Amino acid sequence: MLKNVTVMEGESVTLECRISAYPAPTVAWYREDYHIETSIDFQITFEAGVARLVIREAFAEDSGKFTCTATNEAGSVSTSCYLLVQVSEEFETKEAVSAKEVTEEKRYVESKDVIMAEIAAAEEVPGEAAAPFFIIKPVIQKLIEGGSVIFECQVGGNPKPHVYWKKAGFPITTGYRYKIIHKKETGECRLEISMTFSDDAGEYTIVARNKHGEVSASASLLEEADYEVYLKSQEETMYQTEVTAYVHEPKIAAVAPPTLYADYEKEYEKEQALIRKKMAKDTVLIRTFAEEQEFH
């Protein structure tokens, strides 16, 4: 039977169990529902009735349920255990970490019918508690085959959140072409992918989690043709926004200056003065005409 294992981040892990069956079974290993293949990071052997999985270097993202399944024509049998990887502060030695007062919290999170086990190891920072949040989110990147790409973001929260990256729902671990960097003091996070090829295209997600909550953000790695389409759509969106702003912007010359009440009053007085002046002139003319008639 497999036994639960707890290790510090960066350590090697060996999971093993004894299997007795005839005819000799086919052995398969799984992390959650993900089938593990032999690679530079995972070594799988089955010798002398002992099935063994060796993880070259364990990271927090490796935490979870591991299952070994043996199958032959008579049927199948499986055994499971939980691997818990404690996260240490960056650049600190294991001795320094063990000397700290660390709060360990074991939680089981159900997501898409998968039960994950995790130990959150974090030192509380003075101040108000806060669920994780993004200061800077990752952005869409262009895939150049044979090149490299970097996704960057920055997270905050108290206690400082644990972060991990996923692609298509599967956790990404440091090793081979992937390098994950998390500076806990500043919250800066980086996912570096080297020697990229077309299969690397897709959506990458970073998840930040502490005991107060969880937050995630995603960004796509697009092949060149798709990236050009994306850039064109962005340019069109920006152009439409600029045109809309220009059309709705009022023109200063088209706006009539405000007319004050005092101006109306002055105009009215001028008109009344002209009328009085004209009436006075007409009165003089009438009087002169009347006097001349009387004289004759």
Automatic annotation (TrEMBL):
Lineage: superkingdom: Eukaryota
Keywords: Immunoglobulin domain
Ig-like domain segment(s): 1-78, 132-222
Family matches, as SUPFAM superfamilies: Immunoglobulin (SSF48726)
Swiss-Prot/TrEMBL GO biological process terms: cardiac muscle cell development; heart morphogenesis
PANTHER family: IMMUNOGLOBULIN (PTHR47633), MYOPALLADIN ISOFORM X1 (PTHR47633:SF4)
Name used for this protein in its record: Ig-like domain-containing protein
Lineage: Eukaryota, Metazoa, Chordata, Craniata, Vertebrata
